[in-house]
Amino acid sequence: MTRRAALVAAALLVAGAGLADPVQASDLSDKGTRPSAAADGPALRVDATTGRHAIDPHIYGINFAEEALAKELRLPVRRWGGNATTRYNYKLDAYNAGSDWYFENLYYENGTAQLPDGSEADKFVDQNRRTGTDTILTVPMVGSTTAARNAACGFSIAKYGPQKGSDAQWRPDCGNGVKSDDTNVTGNDPADTSVAAGPEFTKGWVEYLNRAYGSADAGGVRFYNLDNEPDLWFTTHRDVHPAGAGYDEIRDSTYATAAAIKEADPGAQTLGPVGWGLNSLIYSGLDQKTCNEKGGDCWSNPPDRAAHGGQQFAPWYLQQMKAYEQSHGRRILDYFDNHIYPQQSGVSSGNDDPATQELRLRSTRQLWDPTYVDESWINQPVQYIPRMRSLVNENYPGTKLAITEYNWGALDHIDGALAQADVLGIFGREDLDLATLWSPPKSTDPGAYAFRMFRNYDGNGGAFGDTAVQAASADQEKLSVYAAERDSDHALTVMVVNKTTGDLTAPVSVTGRTGLAGSAQVYRYGQDDVTSIKHLADQPLTDGGFTTTFPAYSITEYVLPAGSSEAKPPTAPGTPTATAVGSDRATLSWAASTAGSSPVASYQVYSGDPAGTPPVATVNAPATSATVTGLSPSTTYTFRVVAKDTAGRSSPPSATVRLTTAAAPAATCTVDYRVSNDWGSGFTATVTLTNKGPALNGWQLGFSLAGGQKVTQGWNGTWSQSGTQVTVKDAGWNAALATGASTTIGFNGTYTGTNPAPGNYTLNGKSCTVPGTAAAAHIAPLTGHDPGTRAVRGHATR
To answer: Which residues are in the Fibronectin type-III domain (predicted)?
Structure first.
């Protein structure tokens, strides 16, 4: 690129990252304030037999990572994204910076004779191929691309009058599009900088990439982002798209652009709608712009939403993508992608005073914790990843989850590294499918060491495991813990993050492993030396566990070798057969698995992909049959069975059996049971009871818990439990239930092992039917808020 463009690009990256000067260990404010003796820390528990699911390595991605760091980390995916990619013209190797830099056209100095060969985008793909990294390229949906390799800008001062800001040093005529009275310049000509570019433009680019690098399935570009934060085009690219993008525009543009990509490369994967943050799940760009201008109750009843059945944007969007597949027989959206930047004051921007450090380290809870109320203008529980999963499962099942921009700030400081490690652990535990950090840390930054702890802790490719297992802390704000088994050698890796400024001594129990060696390897990164990961003395194991002290502000990884590197899982169970098929249940039977290195412990029945959905029934070996309950009448299901051995290893799934349930009998009541959150050792659930019989004035609901769960708290009724049997009596105010009327009750519970749905529901002693148990957690919709000037988006405060 030109020196001018290079300086602008560097400025954009630095402004985006919000980084301060690197902090050395001797500079840390907490250095030397550590208590003289370690305090008691929370107990940590790892169970290798439960919570098992594959960790997709694409969660360890980074936007624009440098080649040396990408090679060292064996970086799984690298993204070409951000506002400057929305109008990138692959034919000219030029782009418009949008609001990031005075709406200026900029271009790269890669020669023009052979373009598009040798463009900056090509160089991006070339690097990824050298490091074995998958590529995400952002393609335009805004309707425009950069018109020429020139110095044009969207808001010329000579053409549109005086403006409050300008690129005084480099292009003094290029303004910021804001007049002296603080109103935006309007009526500018988009042709000053850009030309129209529709789906055919994108299709041409994908076809070119196929010729240059092969198709996605042949090692070419794998992923395509469907533009970048289109719900903010009205501000980031308002010189060409001053209107907010509404529900219909995003649907129609996605249909056209994603279909064009799939036509050019059927194996390519698409990611959308790529919103800027939490409000992107609630509002269209049109509603965000409208309510920014109107204020007041607009945020609670925005007009674009009202015109689309009152649905929030994300569920509506996913339903539209599902409708396309049903109509055309082809999926065009592969990943549900939405960005997240912590909205708590100073966190994402990199502030690093002691109060912000504490806030940064506890704010990672917004990714999963239903009890954490976001400490910002959001002011409600976020549960970001479970929320995204709930939206997908309820509106377009089978869609994967992606977060292609996030940043918890302070990557140049140890507390930023701790937050980054915590986030990566959460991504793996919560079964996210893809994530890319914005923007890249320097290879010497503490934030880079957080990635090394997961991807290359020993400098020789030592990595955190590939299959997540259950890991829980009695207090995750102090010590967070994550665990996974490595596929290559079956070693169990355990990551512990001490997020406090004091040393903590805590017990670590490890269950579900056989043949463990007598000690674990130990690797640590922390405030005492922010320049390297230390390989410490092995940790002796007693019955597979240990008690140790975790230093303040540290990340510690334990590698517990398996008893044998030749350990084998059980064989696949036989093909199931179905008997006693009723309206809400069916009995499945299968031939037993042959044990591998360890005895078969249990069988799990799945109605979805075993890698990404919970089992619907579990039985202990040697039993080879199970009754699946909670099915819907007159519905077709597909089931398969997986065996699990005593070491926690899973077999390949059996062949499938397909069945259709009987029609529903007349019922006096129906029950809808939903888990709203499950954190590995406890859960929150609701039960919606609908009376199908004569009107009631007083009721008592009974059900049985099949997995040893314990009710710890209940509401909207009087709760009691005896063994596995739970009884709920009405709360008085909800005693009257007319025919067809419903009431919802809820409870918190604890469990160990699996958490199957309850069964055997009765209302006043008569059986209830269960029309269907939610396959995944349902999370109540968010309440929309006006972010005002407080919203943090891409490290810029608007």
So the answer is: 572-664
